[in-house]
Design goal:
- This protein is α+β, with helices and mostly antiparallel strands.
- Helix content is about 15%, strand content about 35%.
- It has 2 domains: about 120 residues, Rieske Iron-sulfur Protein; about 190 residues, Alpha-Beta Complex (Naphthalene 1,2-dioxygenase Alpha Subunit, Chain A, domain 1), CATH 3.90.380.
- The strands form 4 sheets. Strands 11-17-16-15-14-13-12 form a 7-stranded antiparallel β-sheet, covered by helices on one side. Strands 5-6-7-8 form a 4-stranded antiparallel β-sheet, with no helix packed on it. Strands 1-10-9 form a 3-stranded antiparallel β-sheet, with no helix packed on it.
- A hairpin with a 2-residue loop joins β9 and β10.
- The longest helix has 21 residues.
- The structure holds fe (ii) ion.
- The site of fe (ii) ion has 5 residues, from loops.
Length: about 325
């Protein structure tokens, strides 16, 4: 399982605000328990286990820039070294009494972790609107979905369900036809282009329109799309954290270069409604893990996006959350 390529990818695990200075949290990532803690200015992610008697360090505290184990008070510094054992104050802890860390970074208001310790931060998926002041941005989620993150992402790439699951919001039951769109797989990742959909209310403004979606994924669990309509450009940067093979969390950053007068609460509520419509559908899929064998489910002409997605996952060597 550890050679699954998802172990090399970056995953959002927590909002940065959820881990203030001098605090510690436990998180789950790819079926593992991790401890996340922040000193005054540095975040660290380790396996959630004290090397001494294997208790969870996430039950401990942060004091004077050190993580303190709840069991025997062992103190670890930011580099992972145990610097003090209160029960034997004159003894110098040996080097094996140390934690090895995972790669960690704070970006877009989220804390990202890669289980491959040397993963470069340049691999964190791009979110160009983040720095662009023409876009208003707000974070939606986190959304908990009891299913494989790959099922969740496949649903995100599928516009053919809009008229049925999101009738009146993202689609119209009387206009279900999916027009042909372009799918491109390259070394940059997977792209879906020129995906055209009729929407009764594309952006929560109440006005129907034909819109065009362009999607891009540089890694399997982070996607962004732009939605072009006559009102402007809206993007969603969607990042899914695979907690376990059948459990995931999703965050959505929405950016818009229009609709300044629409209250954020209203936009947020629209998105929450849409996601709440998706969750029971995705959670009802069996198996919950995504089948990569294409003959396991029937594919229809509008499923080129999901066929390509599954082929890409296979190519990349994804083995977590798939059957
Ligand atoms: Fe949906």
């Amino acid at each position: 399982m550890t050679n699954c390529s998802l172990f090399h990818d970056w995953h959002p695990v927590l909002e940065s605000d959820e881990l203030p200075p001098e605090t510690v949290r436990s998180i789950r990532l790819l079926g593992r328990d991790l401890v996340l803690w922040r000193s005054r200015d540095r975040v660290s992610a380790w396996s959630d286990r004290c090397p001494h008697r294997s208790v969870k360090l996430s039950g401990g505290t942060v004091k004077n820039g050190l993580l303190v184990c709840p069991y025997h008070g062992l103190q670890f510094d930011e580099t992972g070294r145990c610097v003090e054992v209160p029960g034997c104050p004159d003894w110098t802890p040996p080097p094996q009494l140390a934690m090895s860390g995972y790669a960690i970074a704070v970006r877009y208001g989220l804390i990202w972790v890669s289980l491959q310790p040397d993963t470069d931060t340049s691999q964190i998926p791009e979110f160009p609107e983040w720095e662009d002041s023409q876009y208003r941005k707000f974070l939606c989620g986190k959304y908990r979905v009891r299913s494989s993150g790959l099922r969740v992402m496949e649903n995100f790439l599928d516009v053919s369900h809009f008229p049925f699951v999101h009738d009146g919001f993202l689609g119209d039951r009387t206009r279900p036809k999916v027009e042909p769109y372009e799918v491109e797989l390259s070394d940059r990742g997977l792209s879906l282009n020129n995906v055209r959909v009729w929407q009764p209310d594309p952006d929560g403004t109440g006005v129907g329109a034909k819109v065009t979606y362009n999607y891009h994924l540089s890694q399997p669990l982070v996607a962004s799309f732009e939605k072009l309509s006559s009102s402007g450009r809206l993007t969603i940067f969607f990042a899914v954290c695979p907690l376990d093979v059948e459990d995931s969390l999703g965050w959505m950053w929405i950016s818009m270069n229009y609709g300044e007068d629409i209250p954020e609460a209203e936009l947020q509520q629209f998105q929450d409604t849409v996601v709440r419509q998706d969750i029971p559908i995705v959670e009802s899929q069996q198996p919950k893990q995504l089948p990569l064998n294409l003959s396991a489910e029937v594919h229809l002409p509008f499923d080129r996006s999901s066929i390509r997605y599954r082929q890409w996952l296979k190519q990349r060597g994804v083995t977590f959350g798939v059957v």
